[in-house]
Design goal:
Length: 599
Amino acid sequence: MMTLISGRLKVILRVRTSTSSFDLRVTNMFIVVFLSLFALLDGIVIRTNRGEIQGYTSYEGGIDTPVHVFKAVPFAKAPIGDLRFRLLEDPLPWDGILKATEYSTACMSNSTRTFSPQKNISEDCLYLNIFADKRCFDQGRSRSCPVVPYIHGGSFTYDSAVMFNDTQIIQKYANKEIVFVIPAYRIGIFGFLDLGNDDVVRRNVGLYDVVHALKWIKEEIRNFGGDPDRITLFGSSSGASVVAYLTMSPIVPLDYFHQSIALSNAPNMMKDGNRNMSILVAERIGCSGPGATDQDIVDCLRSKSALEIVGWQRSLEVRGSLVIQGPEPDSLMLPGNYFELMTKAPAKPILLGQTKHEFINTHEIDNYEEVYCSSYCRFFEYHTKEAIDECVRYYTNKTGRYDGEHTVEAEAIHAINYRDALLWTSKGAPVYLTSFNMVNHSKHADDLLFALGIHPQPSMNEEERFMDRSYPEVLVNFVKNGRPPEDWRPFNENGSGYYVFDAKKNGSDIVFPHFENSPFFPGHAHFWLSHLAEVDKEARSVRRTLQKDGVTLLKKTNHLHFSAFALAFTLFFVLAGVVLVLILTQKEEPNRRQGYEYV
């Protein structure tokens, strides 16, 4: 039915091309609306291992490239009640046909740090949203379509898997013979509670959620036209950090994904990073007190409402600037610090992108340098006061503290990604490094406007429209072919070679994105990876010398103390002997005198 309707509408469209552009736009709008009305009637039913699922067909990307859409596909039991804070269990099979045409609620979040809070939230949120090109289902294809699981960002405390614009996903990815999947995962305290005891409650359950979703994709995606042997894990911001963490984790099967895209990876993996927040929430909600065991605390937290818990999490953000940091070292998923684990990680192809200015100190925090120098020095394992002081001195004396040119976070992130790129390159994996430099779009996550339509603006100028077309094309090319455009060479072991995304008007022309065969932010890499490392090393060396000298001095002092004590002890007995002799002498003298008189 829909094929016949589509064919007739295409004829109408061809006839109308001779009319005005306004009439053509009206006609196109009519076609999209008309097809959308019939989309649900043209539902597609897929059989999975646990039951049948009905999606719908979308023509938002054009009538020649329809996309099958499946929303709120369950990949786990709802983590509610006794399952709160636990590792996920597989969903139960269902009878009949599961309707998958509407989004689920977003996972629990209530943060002060987002401009896009989720309207409907619930713990029952662990679903996937799947957008698959209709051509991926053709029986005559020689191979299935590549798969892209996209991990949303939001600093592990906000945003969700249901916040995206369907049209953007369909037009930029799904109708390019790709299966695009957006899984949900628990965030905030629900995903990253830390009581310091993995036997009672596992840390990093939010990461385990993503792994569980990847397991589902590996087992089921062929039913949706996807190739389980061509999976590109894609993430931005904290989602890019998830990509990095799952790449380095020793417990994630290697075949769960085969290459990755990480845009603006800003890892902040600190030991016990969520401990204070977790304990404070437990105290404020009445679950922690004298004599309470870890098990008592968890049992109590499971008895509280989700809204009450997330409310206290937000309250602590406002009052004390305490936030859930996200993943942290644990006993299984991430058994070590970031750089240790990354050194051991297997080599996989990766497209690694950053924006030129990344984070900007928009709030103009008075002690900005102290706060972030301390945080990132700790991340780089620089624990001496001298290293932190040198960092503070360096950035305090720089101009552009609040315009993004010289912020601690931006330069530290560039250094982290430079080090990761150099490490993966040394292992033989192709690394395609990028810097997004477009004017007015070079801050953290600004590129997502063009990649996914996030934070849309009312209109675009010519350069922005060009970037809106070209940026996702580069990502699609990497997904499908394992490499970006032909002129883009991999990063090399000398620390050079990256692609600059920019679009500038030069007269009537637009300057295209281009390849730079030069070092990647060399000043940032040198300061964080070399200079501060030397300062920290020297400070630790001096401290060891002082400690060694102190031990030697202590030994000498102890020896002198012993010698003095021995001398004093000897003198004491000598003096005591002299006194005793004198006393005895005094007693005998009168006797002698008395005896002489009687004789």
